[in-house]
Amino acid sequence: MRCLTTRAHSPSRVADWITLAKVRVNTLVVATTAGGFYMGAQGPVDLTALALTALGTALVAGGAAALNQVAERDTDALMVRTRTRPVAAERMSVLEGRAVGVALSVAGLLVLWSMIGQLAAMVAVATLVSYVFCYTPLKRRTSFAAVVGAVPGALPPMIGWAASQGSITEFGGWSLFLIMFVWQLPHVLAISWMYRDEYGRAGIPVLPVVDTTGAMTGRQAVVWAVTLVPISVLPAIAGLASHTYGIGALVLGLAQLAVTVRFAFTRTHEHARLVFYASILYLPLLWILMTVTR
After folding, report:
1. 274: which residues sit within 8 A by CB, 6+ positions away?
2. Geometric angle at alpha carbon 130, from 99 and 191, rounded to 5°
């Protein structure tokens, strides 16, 4: 009976592949890619090209997530929040995990290269390489890895922009990159604070592990939240969105800043969680406001 119960609750192979590719988390990657495509489009949006860009990016993002989990299988196994991942839990072999990661990445790059354009594919290559070969190994060595990891996290809108514009030299496209880059840092610091004990046991030197009092963590979260306020207005300055967007972006940014300042003073788990949820709410609201006022 115990074996039957265990088998019934054991994830299926498909479920393991979905977990390996971080499908739920990568929904944000696909959404911001689509947002970048839409904001960069001149004239009517080519829905077929948009769908293919989103598909290619989703495959590359899934491949990068899989390769990341293969590389971090030992530290994942030491943390409660990650120890059930398929490679860390040894439900999936390293070889299979790596094969899935490579297959997804190659498939996504082929879709972008052959059906969208070489520039979009090259931005996707930069995203993949910076995530797997720069951010992933740095996580074990320095808390600065969070800043490095914000680069691949901010590149998906540039994939979309490159796909619709055929160029990445425009100020408007880089304003989207900067928003995504800066937004991630208070978000990641909040997560790191909430799970600092787990990161410490796994030997991952995120800032809250190194900064035991949390004073520096709080200050940095506030600095990045302050920086996000003017950065978020750049699409209006670039002419991508209206002044209404600019005003709304300021309101959203100041609201998130207020939550972050509160965390910096208290440094409690509850207020870190509030920063986390505020950042999750902030980003879609900002993108929705941007697209409807385009």
Report:
1. 259, 262, 263
2. 95
- Write the DSSP symbol of residue 11: P
Structure-token pair, residue 271:
């207020």
Half-sphere exposure of 162 (CA within 13 A, CB side): 24
Q: Where are the alpha helices (DSSP H) in 155-268?
A: 156-165, 171-194, 196-201, 207-210, 215-231, 234-237, 243-266
DSSP for 52-112, written as a single string: HHHHHHHHHHHHHHHHHHHHTHHHHTTSTTTTTSTTTTTSS-HHHHHHHHHHHHHHHHHHH
d(CA 218, CA 119): 38
Comparing CA positions, the residue from 136, 72, 61, 149 lying closest to residue 105 is 61
Question: Would you say 66 and 101 are in contact if contact means Cβ atoms under 8 Å apart?
Answer: yes
Measured over the CA atoms of residue 235, residue 239, residue 240 and residue 245, the dihedral's sign is positive
For residue 19, give the nearest of 75, 76, 74 by alpha carbon: 76
Q: What is the pLDDT along the chain (294 residues), one digit of tens a residue?
A: 334 444 445 678 889 889 999 998 899 999 999 999 999 998 899 999 999 999 999 999 999 999 999 999 999 999 999 999 999 999 999 999 999 999 999 999 999 999 999 999 999 999 999 999 999 999 999 999 999 999 999 999 999 999 999 999 999 999 999 999 999 999 999 999 999 999 999 999 999 999 999 999 999 999 999 999 999 999 999 999 999 999 999 999 999 999 999 999 999 999 999 999 999 999 999 999 999 998
Domain boundaries, the chain: 9-140, 170-294
* pTM (2 d.p.): 0.93
Nearest to 64 by CA among 94, 100, 112, 89: 100
Nearest to 100 by CA among 9, 19, 11, 30: 19
- In 3D, which of 37, 287, 58 has the Cα closest to residue 157? 37
DSSP structure class, residue 206: -
Query: Which CATH architecture describes the domain 9-140?
Result: Orthogonal Bundle (1.10)
